Amino acid sequence: MSTEAIPAEKPKRNYNALFGLTLLALLVLLWVILSLSTSSFASANNISNLLRQGSMIAILAVGQTFVIITGGIDLSVGAVVGFATVIAAMLINAGVPVFLAILLTLLVGVAIGLFHGFGIVKMGLPPFIITLATLTSLRGIGLLMTNGNSISINNDAFQEFSRNSFLGVPNLFWMVLLVGIPAYVFLHHSRWGRYLFSVGSNAEASRLSGVNVQRTIFMAYTLSGLCAAFVGVLLASRIGIGNPTQAEGWELQAIASSVIGGTSLFGAVGSVHGPLLGAFILATINNGANLLNVNAFWQRVITGVLIIVIVYFDGLRRRGGK
Amino acid sequence: MTPTAHEVHPAPALEPGRTILELRGLEKRYPGTHALKPVDLAFKASEIHAIVGENGAGKSTLIKLLTGVMPRTSGEVIWEGQSAALATPHEAMALGINAVHQEVVLCRHLTVAANMFLGEENSRFGILQQRAMVKEAQKIIDDLGFDLPAHVTLGDLTIGQQQLIAAARATVRGTKFLIFDEPTAYLTRKEADQLFTLIRRLKTEGVTIIYISHRMEEVFELADRVSVLRDGTLVGTRNISETNDAELVKLMINRSIEQIYHKEHFTPGAAIIEARNLSGKGFENVSMTVRAGEIVGLYGLIGAGRSEFVTTLYGRHKKSAGQVLWEGKDVQINSEHDAIKLGMALAPESRRDQGLCLNLPVGLNLNLPIYKRISSNLLISNAKEKAEADRQIAGLRIKTPTRHALASSLSGGNQQKIVIGKWLAHGAKLFIFDEPTVGVDVGTKAEIYRLFSALLSKGAGIILISSYLPEVYELADTLHVFRRGKLVATHGFHTADHEDILTQALAEKQEKLGGKT
Q: Looking at the partner chain, which of A4, A7, A209 has a beta carbon nearest the beta carbon of B369?
């Protein structure tokens, strides 16, 4: 093969950072527009509300991104969130100390992630299939456990956590940083992060280079399951109930956030800050549309259009950069 | 001796063909690179015109311009006396210009027949005439003398067979001008012969052929004329009868041929690895030893079991019988990880499928095997990551703007240097190179061979797999010949001649010889 000399290319080093800045600019632009066009957007109350709305999807999107970078997909996260609210509610109501209840709920998320890894690596199932199967069956298991009812959580301290703020910022948003910062270090500054990218780019080449591909895949789905269970705990705290039908469609919002944040569904391209920004852009659009009295049905349409526009321009830029 | 312009010589070997395609000052610039400097060249009807040159010399650019894949920067293309824009692939095909690429670009999941007629399906009232198409495809294939079924799924054929189908496909669309881009890179000798027969036949039917290859003997076997590109410039066109290997290589690289195969002999040290009666999928009962400071060459046709043997050594596949000794000790290698831990390194056969993470940076590819070493507990040391990558880039002279450039943006030769380079920092003792110079130009080949010597001098051992006999012949201290999964012969350095080795590798030939005596 005689590929020609490729024109000198600008270093791609800051590509992620640059794209992140563009997204940040978009987010700020949306905020400025909404502050000017509505009286209520810039209120402390609304901003807190918006941060709460965006936080949970943001955390889901981080876990989802790990999976997408390996070239996979995790459709189960919404169902895991709902299931986790049930587990947390049942444990707390049974008198298990809150701390332990949270830990056990997180372990359930880990177990679900490990099951996905097992299905993909050992049974050879496509990620789409195994996580789709979990999506429907977890909802079913949750409904069986609750007989289709909601479980009210009788622990005020647990519920107050999600309503309270620390240093004027909602606790839920602090949770985004709690997840986001270690996730950033993990993805961009640890060898396991590099392996996620290399497996997503070329699993065979990675294997021949000594990367444990199976373990890497297990890790990605486990982290996604863990993030989803964590979001389940936060949601249980926020709504004060355990209900397996909660978080319907959140998996798609998480995937959309990730993709808006520059993650490639073909794998090997992604970051942590991108999906976080993507999640808050989506939250802002929904919030703003509410304030502007835009029909809720239109919000869905707008979200869809936005995904197409952002991903299209991102693709254009990537190709143009070559 | 050297003809200055081919027009001066009446060249009796050439058909007195009219000019079918003429390039006048054809030029291509990318931002920052002058990929093709103005080229003037005329192709005659029914000639086989070889184009040779190193990677990055401008061959691919030329093809892309001729097939309408990319627009030219300036210049003119005259097709049968008329100026042609060649702005889209469609326009090029409509004129009758087609290309067969080195990597098969067909649909693996469709049948052979469906691929042959892709885009020009035979249908009646919107219904595909599948049976008719299979029948017609089979007729074309039989006509060409390929022993292949038309109804099977393309992906079930070997890469070589797929290549033949790609060539057959190009012949059925009123092609007048057919470009072959390194078509034999993955072909067995027999398949290559079938392809050459096809090419010669197309020539007699009046088709003009452009044949691009790194293999000189093919150029001399097939071509009427040959043009040499170097650094985007057309440095010469010769009638094939009036030139030779040495002249062409010199034109291509400005260097003489003796400097390419760089062989130093070292006194072999202790055995690094020994296989005893090893059997596995695709090979059986193979025994061999690799010692420090020697190159052990494995020669044979593609599919003879060489790659399967080394990937089994490397833990990719399970052995079914036999024993492996590493530095004299019995070892079980159950995974690539085990092999790498012992000190093995494998530069696999296919850069794209097995060697590289193409859409990731050069630096990440180079450091992939050593991330554990350049991490302290949790975090990767940025300084070490940078230093290791830059060291390999500088040491191997990998042409890349920075270590952050994507591997896919590099030329084939430079990509191959990454595949090899990632093991240098790892400190392996046994290097396995599976077809390390496929699709690599002469200059890069020489660099890779020099690298072998450097590894040997540090006490490493090398297993070199190649389907290209001169390569193993000139480099291997011990040469094992594989045929149909068995090790059939072993030679020392230059103790057998090419003819014997070829005969041992080709089962059919030997049977024929056996029949005669």
A: A209
Q: Please tell me the distance in Å from B369's CA to the nearest CA on chain A.
A: 5
DSSP secondary structure of B119-138: TS--EETTEE-HHHHHHHHH
Beta bridge partners of B434: B465
Between positions 71 and 130 of B, the ones with CB within 8 A of A are: 102-103
Q: CA B67, CA B79: separation in Å to the nearest integer? A: 12
* A5: nearest CB among B359, B371, B411: B411
C-beta separation of A2 from B411 below 8 A: yes
Q: What is the ipTM of this complex?
A: 0.79
Binding-face residues of B in 277-336 toward A, CB within 8 A: 314, 316, 336
pLDDT of residue B33: 67
User: In this structure, what token pair is assigned to residue B73?
Assistant: 């920067």
| The one-letter amino acid at B390 | D
Mark out the alpha helices in B205-276 (DSSP H runs): 216-222, 245-253
Q: Note whether B208 and B178 are within 8 A (CB).
A: yes
List the structure tokens of A297: 């049905």
Which amino acid does the sequence have at B418?
I
Rounded CA-CA distance B225/B66 in Å is 18
3-state SS class at B178: strand
**Residue A78, amino acid:** G
* DSSP states along B433-473: EESTTTT--HHHHHHHHHHHHHHHHTT-EEEEEES-HHHHH
Q: Give the Cα separation of B271 and B293 in Å (integer).
A: 10
Q: How many CA atoms lie within 13 A of B16 on its CB side?
A: 3
* pTM recorded for the entire structure: 0.75
Span A224-260, pLDDT tens digits: 999 999 999 999 999 999 999 999 889 999 999 998 8
**Closest to A67 measured CA to CA, from A209, A206, A227, A191:** A227
Which helix H or strand E contains A286, and what residues bound it?
helix A273-291
Q: Do A202 and B212 touch (CB under 8 A)?
A: no
Residue B37's CB: how many other CB atoms inside 10 A? 16
Q: What whole-number distance in Å separates Cα of residue B465 and Cα of residue B478?
A: 12
**DSSP structure class, residue B302:** T
Task: Note the pLDDT of residue B197.
Answer: 87
pLDDT band at A10 (very low <50, low <70, confident <90, very high): very low
Integer Cα distance of B259 and B445 in angstroms? 11
Phi, psi (rounded to 5 degrees) for B321: -160, 165
Closest chain A C-alpha to B448 CA, distance in angstroms: 17
Q: What average pLDDT does the structure give for chain A? A: 87
| φ and ψ at residue A129, rounded to 5 degrees | -70, -50
The tokens 């999906």 sit on which residue? Answer: A275
The alpha carbon dihedral of B99, B103, B104, B105 has a sign of negative
Average pLDDT along chain B, 517 residues, taken 10 residues at a time:
40 57 88 79 91 80 88 89 86 87 77 82 72 85 82 82 83 84 78 86 89 85 91 88 84 68 84 92 91 92 84 90 92 91 88 86 90 84 88 86 86 85 87 84 83 89 87 90 88 84 65 37
In chain B, which residue's Cα lies nearest the Cα of A6? B409
The whole-angstrom separation of Cα B415 and Cα A287 is: 49
Task: Report the SS3 class of residue B194.
Answer: helix
CA A260 to chain B, closest CA, distance in angstroms equals 20
Calpha distance A183→A192 (Å, rounded): 11
Is the pLDDT reported for residue A17 higher than 70? Answer: no
The pLDDT value recorded for residue B477 is: 92
Residues B460, B428 contacting (CB under 8 angstroms): yes
pLDDT at B468: 78
CB neighbours of residue B119 within 10 Å: 6
Instruction: Give the Cα separation of B478 and B290 in Å (integer).
Output: 9
> What is the pLDDT, as a whole number, of residue B106?
78
